[in-house]
């Protein structure tokens, strides 16, 4: 039976935490030799001004690495500016468990919601954003010897596979179940299961490649910006500049990403989401004792008159009328 090991950096001093986390992930996910880790251009950046906390649970499914990675909001970048010493870095089959993550590699981008998955080549430059935190199961299968499968993977890196339908759903289900049971399986069974999941994933990638192209890089950026906004709606100083800084892009990029959004602008999206959250709490019995003003201020409004105007414009009635007209 394979053992299951749990490690965390939470107890390490904040100044040393990112370095320790880099070493843990490099050793147990990337399986990078210690002599090469210092030259690895990978970078971890905490987001939203939060202290970085992270844990890793890992083991082997036969001869294939399997782990679950959980962390607070952050961005991971393997830069193209410098050649990576990890030339034989693993393929990673990444299944999203909670929140959303945003992947970019080889000019392709995708948004993973819970249950979705994608293939990332750790030997090549890539970026992953976790604006609401990270919770992922990762399988690191061997690189296929079949040139046709290798070409398929090269064409489908960072492409979102919908884990709720077709072969992609089977990959999601099998890998999630395998993670729950891998330390209870004999090595031969575990190895066969890992091979089965990898083979099924290649079929699912072919299925995904035969469907129309999904979201563009701009779609992915807009989704990433929206996830950041939704996480910080209650902050009164949430602004276009704050969103840009929190997501590591320019103000111009933020405006361009929202140019084709139904609401027309990032500011409109922020106010729309705030009004929606307030509307939900106004009719929630759990908030019946709170005043309308208190609810509005709790979602980032600083003026009750401004809130009332936006609320009436959005829903056609005053907040007070909306609350009592059920």
From TrEMBL:
Transcription as a keyword?
Answer: yes
> Which of UniProt's keywords are assigned here?
DNA-binding, Transcription, Transcription regulation
Give the GO molecular function terms.
Answer: DNA-binding transcription factor activity; sequence-specific DNA binding
Recorded hits in SMART domains, A to Z, give: HTH_ARAC (SM00342)
The residue ranges of the HTH araC/xylS-type domain are 223-325
Check the record and name the Pfam families matching this protein: AraC_binding_2, HTH_18
Task: Supply the PANTHER family for this chain.
Answer: ARAC SUBFAMILY, HTH-TYPE TRANSCRIPTIONAL ACTIVATOR RHAS-RELATED
What is the name listed in the Swiss-Prot or TrEMBL entry for this protein? HTH araC/xylS-type domain-containing protein
Native organism: Rhodoferax koreensis
């Amino acid at each position: 039976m394979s053992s299951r090991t749990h490690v965390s950096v939470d107890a390490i001093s904040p100044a040393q935490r990112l370095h320790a986390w880099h070493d843990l992930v490099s050793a147990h996910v990337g399986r990078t030799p210690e002599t090469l880790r210092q030259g690895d251009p990978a970078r971890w950046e905490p987001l939203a001004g939060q202290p970085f906390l992270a844990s890793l649970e890992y083991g082997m499914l036969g001869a294939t690495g399997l782990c679950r990675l959980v962390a607070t909001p952050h961005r991971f970048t393997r830069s193209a500016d410098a050649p990576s010493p990890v030339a034989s870095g693993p393929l990673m089959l990444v299944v999203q468990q909670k929140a959303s993550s945003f992947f970019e590699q080889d000019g392709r981008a995708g948004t993973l919601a819970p249950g979705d998955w994608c293939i990332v080549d750790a030997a090549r430059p890539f970026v992953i954003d976790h604006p609401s935190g990270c919770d992922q199961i990762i399988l690191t299968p061997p690189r296929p010897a079949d040139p046709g499968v290798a070409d398929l993977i090269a064409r489908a890196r960072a492409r979102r596979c919908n884990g709720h339908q077709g072969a992609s759903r089977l990959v999601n289900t099998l890998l999630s179940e395998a993670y729950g049971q891998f330390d209870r399986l004999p090595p031969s069974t575990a190895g066969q299961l890992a091979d089965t999941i990898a083979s099924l994933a290649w079929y699912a990638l072919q299925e995904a490649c035969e469907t129309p192209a999904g979201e563009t890089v701009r779609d992915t950026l807009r989704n990433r910006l929206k996830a950041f906004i939704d996480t910080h709606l209650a902050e009164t100083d949430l602004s276009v500049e704050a969103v840009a800084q929190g997501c590591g892009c320019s103000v111009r990029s933020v405006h361009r990403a929202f140019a084709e959004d139904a609401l027309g602008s990032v500011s409109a999206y922020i106010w729309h989401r705030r009004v929606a959250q307030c509307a939900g709490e106004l009719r929630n019995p759990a908030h019946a004792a709170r005043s309308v003003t208190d609810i509005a201020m709790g979602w980032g409004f600083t003026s009750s008159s401004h809130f009332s105007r936006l609320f009436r414009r959005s829903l056609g009635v005053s907040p007070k009328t909306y609350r009592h007209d059920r």
